[in-house]
Every structure is written in structure tokens, then in C-alpha cells.
Amino acid sequence: MFEKTSLKSRLLLIATVPITVMLVLGLSGAWNKYSDYQSRVQAESLVSLVVELGETAHELQNERGISSGFLNSNGNKFAENLTAQRKQSDSAILRLNESIRRIDASMVGPRYIKLLEAANEPLADLVKKREQITRLSLEPGESFRFYSETISQLLEIALRTGNQMPSSKLSRLSNAKQAVLFLKERQGGSTLC
Q1: Are 158 and 54 in contact (CB under 8 A)?
Q2: What is the structure's pLDDT at 60?
Q3: What angle do helix axes 168-192 and 2-72 make, rounded to 10 degrees?
Q4: Each residue of 23-78: pLDDT tens digit?
């Protein structure tokens, strides 16, 4: 009888080892798949953010130019264009804010999160600046400077987003997009100054 129990124990032990190994390997594989999935989701969010940063910067560049024309003409030109452009800028800002909300703070550095949070400040000031522009109580140079600083802050986020990418390939693509955005801003800023 002792030998039967011993045989049962041995067989159970022999069966338990492979089952335990399979369970550990299965859990490890599942964890790796989940990590890969999380990485892809974060990469998608960051890529979307870079695109929306570019779109918002573009719309604000347009608004900057139209606002300058409006102010320089003492409100006699570009009033309709300005209203339409503000709507386009607002749509871009809305999409940008949604992209920012989709960023998982646990997947990026704390300094990057602070940079994202700081983007809200100039965008919140946009309403006040627009009111001043509409009332013609803002100097054209001050208006231009405000838009340029806001755009610069958005481009800084685009620059830092490349460092948050989960792969070097995505980081290089993000940096290429950011370089195009900086060149576009430099070109627009130098021709409008």
C-alpha cells in the first residue's frame, strides 16, 4: 500500500512539473502579448498626438496671419476670414486636447506630462487674445508674438514626443514630422515678420 501511494505521488509529481512549466510559459507569453499591445496603443496615441500638434500649429499659423491682416487694416479686411479660421483652429484644438487625453501617463515620463499640461495655458489665453483682436485693442506685433509663442510651445511638445516613442523607428518618424513643422514655422515666421 505504501508503494501505491508512493507511485501515485511520483506520477503526480511527474505530471505537475510539465503542467507548471506550461502554465509559467503561457503566463509569460500572455504578459508579453499584453505588453506589446500596450506599447502599440501608446505608440498609436503618440503618433496621433504628433499629427494633431501639426494640424493645430497649422491652423494657428493661418489664424496668426489673418489676425495680423485684420489688425493692420483696422478691422476693414479679413473679418469673415478670421471668423471662419477661428472655427477651424477651434476644431484642431479640440482634436489636440482629445489626443492629449488619450496619452497614458504611466507610459511616458513625468516631465513630458508637465509639458502636455502646460499646453493648456496659452490655448486658454487664446479666447482673451481673440476678444482683444476683435475689439482692435491688441497691437499687431503683440498678436503675432502671442501666436508665435503658442505655436512654438506646441512644436516643443512635438519635439519631445519623439523621445516617448516605444521604438526607434517611430521616434525617427516623429522627429522627421517635427522637423517639417519647425521648417514650416520658420518659413512662415520669417515671411510674415
Answers
A1: yes
A2: 96
A3: 10
A4: 888 888 888 887 777 777 787 888 899 999 999 999 999 999 999 999 999 999 99
Q: In this structure, which amino acid lies at residue 81? A: N
Provide the pLDDT for residue 192. 40
Q: What does pTM read for this prediction? A: 0.77
What does the DSSP assignment read for the chain?
Answer: -HHHHHHHHHHHHHHHHHHHHHHHHHHHHHHHHHHHHHHHHHHHHHHHHHHHHHHHHHHHHHHHHHHHHHHHTTTSSSHHHHHHHHHHHHHHHHHHHHHHHTS-GGGS-HHHHHHHHHTHHHHHHHHHHHHHHHTT-S-HHHHHHHHHHHHHHHHHHHHHHGGG-SSHHHHHHHHHHHHHHHHHHHHHHHHH-
Q: Give Cα 124 distance to the centre of its chain.
A: 17
Greater confidence (190 vs 184) lies with 184
Kindly list the distances between the CA atom of residue 100 and the CA atoms of 50, 96, 104, 114, in Å, as whole numbers in the listed order.
10, 6, 9, 12
pLDDT at 189: 52
